Amino acid sequence: MIAVLALLAAPFTGGSRLAHVRLRAVPLLAAAAVVQLATSALAPGSGTVRILALVLTSVLVGLFVLGNLRVAGMPLSGLGLLLNLVVVAANGAMPVSEDAAARAGISPAELALAGDAMREPLTQDTLLGRLADVIPVAAPWWPQVVSPGDVLVAAGVGLLLVSARGPQTAARDKRSTVLASESTTIGSYS
Q1: Alpha carbon 131 to its chain's center
Q2: Spatial distance between the Cα atoms of 18 and 7, rounded to a whole number of angstroms
Q3: 177 in any annotated domain
Q4: Burial (CB count <10 Å: 0-12, 13-18, 19+), residue 45
Q5: 190 domain residue, yes or no
Q6: Are strands 119-121 and 94-96 parallel, antiparallel or unpaired?
Q7: Do 105 and 111 touch, CB atoms closer than 8 A?
């Protein structure tokens, strides 16, 4: 969700070079975010509605990623999203390691897996358990448990952000270069 919000905010970042990154099919990403938010608000306990929303969201985000494969970081984010989709499809929900949640500082009550149609406890019977939410993130302001797919999505967004800074450096280098024809000193290359 953080990656989706970061990409949606890209056109509004003002002086950031990210605002100049050309992303195609952004309305698909916006629609995916609306579907997820609406489903969470209107049908938080309905497993059927949440699964349908997940399928629709996956299709919308997948089309967005396909339309932007040439953008730095997008293939990596796409792979992360695909890994998350595979583990959810294999289990019917995203398995979450309660041990990893405890290491991140999240209590079972805060985790609230019993009331969440899209997440379930990680067990011995979980398929593809290594792709589930098994990585504790003990951030003091927002502890969470993430999946390897989430890490790839974040890395892809990070690569997008870093690569968006590239043109700034190139423009600065171009301004600081003095051509021989512009030099005021004859025979000097300084």
Answers
A1: 16
A2: 9
A3: no
A4: exposed
A5: no
A6: parallel
A7: no
- Domain containing 58 equals 2-13+22-164
Report how far residue 41's alpha carbon sits from residue 104's, in angstroms, rounded to the nearest whole number.
26
Task: Tell me the C-alpha distance between 96 and 120, whole Å.
Answer: 6
Say if 150 falls within a structural domain. Answer: yes
pLDDT digits (tens, 9 = 90+) for 23-58: 888 899 899 989 988 887 777 767 778 778 888 998
CB atoms < 10 A from the CB of 4, how many?
Answer: 19
Rounded to whole angstroms, the Cα distance separating 90 from 100 reads 21
Q: How confident is the model at residue 116 (pLDDT cuts 50, 70, 90)?
A: confident
The single-letter DSSP state of residue 124 is T
| pTM exceeds 0.85 for this model | no
User: What whole-number distance in Å separates Cα of residue 145 and Cα of residue 132?
Assistant: 9
Overall domain count for the chain? 1
Task: Report whether pLDDT(75) > 70.
Answer: yes
Residue 155 lies in a domain: yes
- Is the model more confident about 168 or about 84? 84
- CA angle, residues 15, 21, 24, in degrees to nearest 5: 135
Greater pLDDT, 141 or 13: 141
Q: Helix-strand-coil percent breakdown of the chain, rounded to 5?
A: 60, 5, 30
